[in-house]
Automatic annotation (TrEMBL):
A Pfam entry, by short name: 4HBT
Name used for this protein in its record: Thioesterase domain-containing protein
GO molecular function: thiolester hydrolase activity
Organism listed in the record: Hyphococcus luteus
InterPro entries: HotDog_dom_sf, Thioestr_dom
């Protein structure tokens, strides 16, 4: 994940990843440069959607173990409420992974994970067709086939 770690966008967003027992927890620490509506100090929707895309892409890269893993071909974002100028958190989940495409769901929240501020459904075209999902202990691509996980 070398390219991703050195990304200027990641630094501008102050994107961070913390490994927890429930998987990766993504966060950004927004500042005044990220505000879209100065009257209510709400984050710009583009900042929120970019954060969702980066979280989904990072989750895919964790699963594939490669950099770059794939490219976004479709992202649908639903904004559920306004996002204040305070830390933002996200979790991503691989809904389905095929040989050429992966589908990832992602949610963003501020104070409570049960009260999301936005959610996204992301589709990625895969560059690397071999994948081992987090927690799986596979030694060969043939072992992955019965589980519906990638193989060459």
């Amino acid at each position: 994940m070398t390219q991703f770690a050195n990304s200027p966008l990641r630094h501008w967003l102050r994107f961070d990843v913390e490994e927890t027992e429930n998987g990766a927890l993504y966060s950004i620490s927004p500042d005044d440069a990220h505000i879209g509506n100065p009257l209510i100090k709400a984050l710009h929707g583009g900042v929120v959607s970019t954060f969702l895309e980066l979280a989904a892409l990072h989750e895919l890269r964790r699963a594939l173990g490669s950099d770059p893993a794939g490219e976004a071909i479709n992202i649908n974002v639903d904004y559920l409420k306004s996002v204040r100028l305070s830390p933002l958190f996200a979790r991503a989940h691989i809904a389905k992974a095929g040989r050429r495409l992966a589908f990832i769901d992602c949610i963003v929240w501020q104070d409570n994970e049960d009260s999301p501020a936005a959610k996204a459904a992301c589709s990625f075209l895969l560059h690397n067709r071999r994948c081992v999902l987090p927690g799986a202990r596979l030694t060969s691509p043939e072992e992955a086939a019965p589980r519906g996980i990638f193989r060459n």
